[in-house]
Design a protein that fits this description.
Helix content: 10-25%
CATH topology of the largest domain: Diaminopimelate Epimerase, Chain A, domain 1
Radius of gyration: 19 Å
CATH superfamily of the largest domain: Diaminopimelate Epimerase, Chain A, domain 1
Structural class: alpha+beta
Number of helices: 5
Number of strands: 18
Largest sheet: 18 strands, mixed
Distance between the termini: 20 Å
Number of domains: 2
Order of helices and strands: EEHEEEHEEEEEEHEEEHEEEEH
CATH architecture of the largest domain: Roll
Shape: globular
CATH class of the largest domain: Alpha Beta
Amino acid sequence: MKFVKMHGAGNDFAVIEATGDEHDWPRLAVAMCDRHFGVGADGILLALPSERAAIRMRVFNPDGSEAEMCGNGVRCLAKYAVEKGLVKPADSRFSLETTAGVVSVEVSGAGGKVDWVRVVMGAPRLTPEEIPVLADRAAPLVNLPLEIERGATREILAVTCVSMGNPHAVQFISQPIAGYPLEEVGPIVATHPLFPHGTNFEVVRVIDKKRIEARVWERGAGLTLACGSGACAIIAAARLQGLVDDIVDITLPGGTLRLEWDGTGDVYLSGPAVTVFSGEWLIEEEAERDT
Protein backbone atom coordinates (compact mmCIF):
# COMPACT_ATOMS: atom_id res chain seq x y z
CA MET A 1 0.00 0.00 0.00
CA LYS A 2 1.48 3.33 -1.08
CA PHE A 3 1.59 6.29 1.27
CA VAL A 4 3.10 9.78 1.48
CA LYS A 5 4.57 11.13 4.71
CA MET A 6 3.60 14.78 5.24
CA HIS A 7 3.53 17.35 8.02
CA GLY A 8 1.95 20.67 8.87
CA ALA A 9 4.12 22.60 11.34
CA GLY A 10 5.58 19.32 12.57
CA ASN A 11 2.22 17.58 13.02
CA ASP A 12 2.98 14.54 10.82
CA PHE A 13 0.82 12.05 8.96
CA ALA A 14 0.90 9.11 6.59
CA VAL A 15 -1.48 9.97 3.73
CA ILE A 16 -3.20 7.08 1.94
CA GLU A 17 -5.59 7.07 -1.00
CA ALA A 18 -8.54 4.81 -0.21
CA THR A 19 -12.06 3.97 -1.33
CA GLY A 20 -13.66 2.98 1.96
CA ASP A 21 -13.29 0.11 4.41
CA GLU A 22 -10.84 -2.03 2.42
CA HIS A 23 -8.53 -2.22 5.45
CA ASP A 24 -8.81 -2.28 9.21
CA TRP A 25 -7.84 1.37 9.53
CA PRO A 26 -7.61 1.57 13.34
CA ARG A 27 -5.25 -1.42 13.42
CA LEU A 28 -3.23 -0.01 10.53
CA ALA A 29 -2.94 3.36 12.26
CA VAL A 30 -1.50 1.76 15.39
CA ALA A 31 1.11 -0.10 13.32
CA MET A 32 2.08 2.69 10.92
CA CYS A 33 2.24 5.48 13.51
CA ASP A 34 4.68 3.60 15.76
CA ARG A 35 7.90 5.64 15.75
CA HIS A 36 10.13 2.61 16.31
CA PHE A 37 8.53 -0.18 14.28
CA GLY A 38 6.39 1.77 11.82
CA VAL A 39 6.53 4.89 9.69
CA GLY A 40 6.20 7.19 12.69
CA ALA A 41 3.34 9.69 12.62
CA ASP A 42 0.71 11.53 14.65
CA GLY A 43 -1.96 9.79 12.57
CA ILE A 44 -2.95 8.41 9.20
CA LEU A 45 -5.01 10.47 6.76
CA LEU A 46 -7.31 8.77 4.28
CA ALA A 47 -8.06 10.55 0.99
CA LEU A 48 -11.53 9.29 0.06
CA PRO A 49 -14.22 10.04 -2.53
CA SER A 50 -16.94 12.38 -1.33
CA GLU A 51 -20.54 12.97 -2.29
CA ARG A 52 -20.59 16.33 -0.49
CA ALA A 53 -17.24 17.90 -1.44
CA ALA A 54 -14.29 17.58 -3.79
CA ILE A 55 -12.63 15.03 -1.49
CA ARG A 56 -13.18 13.46 1.94
CA MET A 57 -10.73 13.02 4.82
CA ARG A 58 -10.72 10.52 7.67
CA VAL A 59 -8.12 10.70 10.44
CA PHE A 60 -6.99 7.85 12.69
CA ASN A 61 -4.84 8.51 15.74
CA PRO A 62 -1.83 6.44 16.86
CA ASP A 63 -4.04 4.61 19.37
CA GLY A 64 -6.49 3.61 16.61
CA SER A 65 -9.23 6.06 17.57
CA GLU A 66 -10.77 8.26 14.89
CA ALA A 67 -10.57 12.05 15.16
CA GLU A 68 -13.48 14.22 14.03
CA MET A 69 -11.29 17.09 12.83
CA CYS A 70 -7.62 17.86 12.21
CA GLY A 71 -6.67 21.30 10.91
CA ASN A 72 -3.07 20.40 10.07
CA GLY A 73 -4.35 17.23 8.44
CA VAL A 74 -6.74 19.25 6.27
CA ARG A 75 -3.85 21.35 5.00
CA CYS A 76 -1.72 18.28 4.25
CA LEU A 77 -4.56 16.50 2.46
CA ALA A 78 -5.34 19.65 0.48
CA LYS A 79 -1.75 19.79 -0.76
CA TYR A 80 -1.76 16.08 -1.54
CA ALA A 81 -5.08 16.20 -3.42
CA VAL A 82 -4.05 19.14 -5.61
CA GLU A 83 -0.55 17.91 -6.40
CA LYS A 84 -1.81 14.39 -7.19
CA GLY A 85 -4.57 15.74 -9.43
CA LEU A 86 -7.37 14.34 -7.28
CA VAL A 87 -9.06 17.74 -7.23
CA LYS A 88 -8.90 20.73 -9.55
CA PRO A 89 -9.44 23.92 -7.55
CA ALA A 90 -11.55 26.77 -8.89
CA ASP A 91 -9.70 30.03 -8.19
CA SER A 92 -7.42 28.07 -5.84
CA ARG A 93 -10.38 27.00 -3.69
CA PHE A 94 -12.26 23.76 -3.11
CA SER A 95 -14.32 22.01 -0.44
CA LEU A 96 -13.10 19.15 1.72
CA GLU A 97 -15.30 16.85 3.79
CA THR A 98 -14.30 15.86 7.32
CA THR A 99 -16.15 13.83 9.92
CA ALA A 100 -17.04 17.13 11.63
CA GLY A 101 -18.41 18.66 8.42
CA VAL A 102 -17.34 20.29 5.16
CA VAL A 103 -14.63 22.96 5.20
CA SER A 104 -13.39 25.29 2.48
CA VAL A 105 -9.69 25.46 1.64
CA GLU A 106 -7.59 27.88 -0.36
CA VAL A 107 -4.20 26.76 -1.67
CA SER A 108 -1.21 28.79 -2.84
CA GLY A 109 2.14 27.96 -4.37
CA ALA A 110 3.96 27.93 -7.69
CA GLY A 111 4.71 25.44 -10.46
CA GLY A 112 1.80 23.17 -9.60
CA LYS A 113 3.03 22.81 -6.02
CA VAL A 114 1.20 23.82 -2.86
CA ASP A 115 3.17 25.21 0.06
CA TRP A 116 0.57 27.22 2.01
CA VAL A 117 -3.07 26.44 2.78
CA ARG A 118 -5.78 28.60 4.35
CA VAL A 119 -8.74 26.74 5.81
CA VAL A 120 -12.18 28.02 6.78
CA MET A 121 -12.51 25.93 9.94
CA GLY A 122 -16.06 26.92 10.85
CA ALA A 123 -17.41 28.71 13.89
CA PRO A 124 -16.35 27.71 17.40
CA ARG A 125 -18.97 25.74 19.28
CA LEU A 126 -19.29 27.01 22.82
CA THR A 127 -22.23 25.39 24.56
CA PRO A 128 -21.58 22.50 26.97
CA GLU A 129 -23.67 20.14 24.84
CA GLU A 130 -21.80 20.93 21.63
CA ILE A 131 -18.28 20.54 23.06
CA PRO A 132 -19.30 18.29 24.97
CA VAL A 133 -18.49 18.95 28.63
CA LEU A 134 -20.57 18.03 31.69
CA ALA A 135 -20.85 21.53 33.12
CA ASP A 136 -23.98 23.18 34.45
CA ARG A 137 -23.07 26.63 33.15
CA ALA A 138 -24.15 28.83 30.29
CA ALA A 139 -21.85 29.36 27.32
CA PRO A 140 -19.13 30.38 26.92
CA LEU A 141 -17.29 28.14 29.38
CA VAL A 142 -14.50 30.57 30.25
CA ASN A 143 -12.16 29.66 33.13
CA LEU A 144 -14.14 26.60 34.08
CA PRO A 145 -12.70 25.11 37.31
CA LEU A 146 -11.28 21.65 36.59
CA GLU A 147 -10.10 19.64 39.57
CA ILE A 148 -7.33 17.12 38.91
CA GLU A 149 -5.15 14.87 41.03
CA ARG A 150 -1.46 14.64 40.14
CA GLY A 151 0.24 12.18 42.42
CA ALA A 152 -0.57 13.21 45.98
CA THR A 153 -1.40 16.75 44.87
CA ARG A 154 -4.88 18.04 44.11
CA GLU A 155 -5.02 21.04 41.77
CA ILE A 156 -7.73 23.18 40.25
CA LEU A 157 -7.09 24.35 36.69
CA ALA A 158 -9.02 27.12 34.94
CA VAL A 159 -9.83 25.97 31.41
CA THR A 160 -11.82 27.54 28.60
CA CYS A 161 -13.75 24.91 26.64
CA VAL A 162 -14.29 25.10 22.88
CA SER A 163 -15.24 22.66 20.14
CA MET A 164 -13.91 23.00 16.60
CA GLY A 165 -15.72 19.82 15.63
CA ASN A 166 -13.58 18.13 18.30
CA PRO A 167 -13.29 19.09 21.99
CA HIS A 168 -10.59 21.35 23.45
CA ALA A 169 -9.75 22.63 26.92
CA VAL A 170 -7.46 25.67 26.93
CA GLN A 171 -5.46 26.77 29.96
CA PHE A 172 -3.73 30.18 30.03
CA ILE A 173 -0.58 30.58 32.10
CA SER A 174 1.75 33.52 32.69
CA GLN A 175 5.09 31.70 32.73
CA PRO A 176 6.91 30.29 29.66
CA ILE A 177 5.18 27.13 28.49
CA ALA A 178 8.37 25.09 28.05
CA GLY A 179 8.48 24.40 31.78
CA TYR A 180 4.84 23.33 32.11
CA PRO A 181 4.49 19.60 33.04
CA LEU A 182 2.26 18.83 30.07
CA GLU A 183 3.44 15.20 29.94
CA GLU A 184 1.84 14.72 33.37
CA VAL A 185 -1.17 17.03 33.21
CA GLY A 186 -2.15 16.37 29.58
CA PRO A 187 -3.35 12.77 29.92
CA ILE A 188 -5.19 13.60 33.15
CA VAL A 189 -7.18 16.41 31.51
CA ALA A 190 -7.70 14.47 28.26
CA THR A 191 -9.49 11.67 30.14
CA HIS A 192 -11.20 13.77 32.82
CA PRO A 193 -14.78 12.64 33.63
CA LEU A 194 -16.12 16.11 32.76
CA PHE A 195 -15.38 15.34 29.09
CA PRO A 196 -17.52 12.37 27.99
CA HIS A 197 -15.65 12.06 24.68
CA GLY A 198 -12.28 13.07 26.09
CA THR A 199 -10.62 16.33 25.14
CA ASN A 200 -7.53 17.88 23.62
CA PHE A 201 -5.62 20.06 26.08
CA GLU A 202 -3.71 23.25 25.22
CA VAL A 203 -1.45 25.17 27.58
CA VAL A 204 -1.04 28.75 26.38
CA ARG A 205 0.89 31.94 27.11
CA VAL A 206 -0.22 35.19 25.49
CA ILE A 207 2.88 37.22 24.59
CA ASP A 208 0.99 40.22 23.26
CA LYS A 209 -2.17 41.02 21.29
CA LYS A 210 -0.77 39.44 18.13
CA ARG A 211 1.40 36.58 19.42
CA ILE A 212 0.78 33.44 21.42
CA GLU A 213 2.92 30.44 22.32
CA ALA A 214 1.32 27.07 23.01
CA ARG A 215 1.84 23.36 23.54
CA VAL A 216 -0.72 20.63 22.97
CA TRP A 217 -1.65 17.23 24.36
CA GLU A 218 -3.86 15.58 21.75
CA ARG A 219 -6.51 13.07 22.65
CA GLY A 220 -5.45 9.76 21.10
CA ALA A 221 -1.99 10.99 20.10
CA GLY A 222 -0.32 12.56 23.15
CA LEU A 223 2.27 15.30 22.76
CA THR A 224 2.37 16.68 19.22
CA LEU A 225 4.42 19.46 17.67
CA ALA A 226 1.31 21.30 16.49
CA CYS A 227 -2.49 21.03 16.42
CA GLY A 228 -4.51 23.02 13.88
CA SER A 229 -7.92 22.64 15.49
CA GLY A 230 -6.21 23.33 18.82
CA ALA A 231 -4.83 26.60 17.46
CA CYS A 232 -8.37 27.53 16.39
CA ALA A 233 -9.66 26.76 19.88
CA ILE A 234 -6.86 28.88 21.35
CA ILE A 235 -7.72 32.02 19.38
CA ALA A 236 -11.39 31.54 20.24
CA ALA A 237 -10.61 31.16 23.95
CA ALA A 238 -8.24 34.14 23.92
CA ARG A 239 -10.55 36.36 21.88
CA LEU A 240 -13.51 35.60 24.16
CA GLN A 241 -11.47 37.03 27.04
CA GLY A 242 -10.19 40.06 25.11
CA LEU A 243 -6.58 38.88 25.28
CA VAL A 244 -5.76 39.16 21.57
CA ASP A 245 -6.64 40.94 18.34
CA ASP A 246 -8.51 39.40 15.41
CA ILE A 247 -5.32 38.06 13.73
CA VAL A 248 -2.81 36.12 15.82
CA ASP A 249 0.35 34.12 15.15
CA ILE A 250 0.43 31.03 17.36
CA THR A 251 3.86 29.45 17.78
CA LEU A 252 3.91 25.76 18.64
CA PRO A 253 6.98 23.51 18.97
CA GLY A 254 6.77 22.56 15.27
CA GLY A 255 6.19 26.01 13.78
CA THR A 256 3.89 29.01 13.59
CA LEU A 257 0.29 29.08 12.42
CA ARG A 258 -1.76 32.17 11.59
CA LEU A 259 -5.28 32.37 13.01
CA GLU A 260 -8.06 34.83 12.24
CA TRP A 261 -11.29 35.30 14.22
CA ASP A 262 -13.23 38.50 14.85
CA GLY A 263 -15.35 37.03 17.63
CA THR A 264 -18.20 35.95 15.35
CA GLY A 265 -18.51 33.53 12.44
CA ASP A 266 -15.76 31.30 11.11
CA VAL A 267 -12.20 30.81 12.29
CA TYR A 268 -9.51 30.87 9.57
CA LEU A 269 -6.38 28.73 9.91
CA SER A 270 -3.34 29.29 7.67
CA GLY A 271 -0.03 27.49 7.59
CA PRO A 272 2.44 25.34 5.67
CA ALA A 273 2.03 21.83 4.32
CA VAL A 274 5.16 19.81 3.54
CA THR A 275 5.83 16.49 1.82
CA VAL A 276 8.59 14.51 3.55
CA PHE A 277 8.85 11.25 1.57
CA SER A 278 6.78 8.55 -0.12
CA GLY A 279 6.89 4.84 0.56
CA GLU A 280 5.07 1.54 0.53
CA TRP A 281 3.65 -0.28 3.54
CA LEU A 282 3.66 -4.06 3.16
CA ILE A 283 0.36 -5.38 4.46
CA GLU A 284 1.63 -8.97 4.13
CA GLU A 285 4.53 -8.30 6.49
CA GLU A 286 2.19 -6.66 8.98
CA ALA A 287 0.04 -9.80 9.02
CA GLU A 288 3.12 -11.95 9.56
CA ARG A 289 4.19 -9.87 12.58
CA ASP A 290 0.82 -10.45 14.20
CA THR A 291 0.95 -14.27 13.87
